[in-house]
């Protein structure tokens, strides 16, 4: 899976480890975007807003692939709209609970017997 597919595609499945790697990077990305939006410079503000919008789309795509690994539709992303519990529920389901074993309707298992499936789980440029 290419980095572009990992960040912007809703197709396929990803492992919990790839999810958490993205999650940590997204936290940094969000801080950087917020910093840029807080500067007194219109170009930096515009870049920060665009960066933040791209981040939001990427978050939904990555969460969608984790929902797929759990055997659920990416529509489960909408659970995040429930105040308070929604984001907690999504993070527990996508970050802590194991995905379906074997192939499901969304693709092959990202990891099998500790070996990465390069067509599903690896992020490369």
UniProtKB/TrEMBL annotation:
The chain crosses the membrane at residues 20-37, 43-64, 76-92. Pfam families: DUF805. One of its GO terms (cellular component) is plasma membrane. The keyword Coiled coil does not apply. Keywords: Membrane, Transmembrane, Transmembrane helix. This is Uncharacterized membrane protein YhaH (DUF805 family). The lineage of its organism: Bacteria, Pseudomonadati, Spirochaetota, Spirochaetia, Spirochaetales.
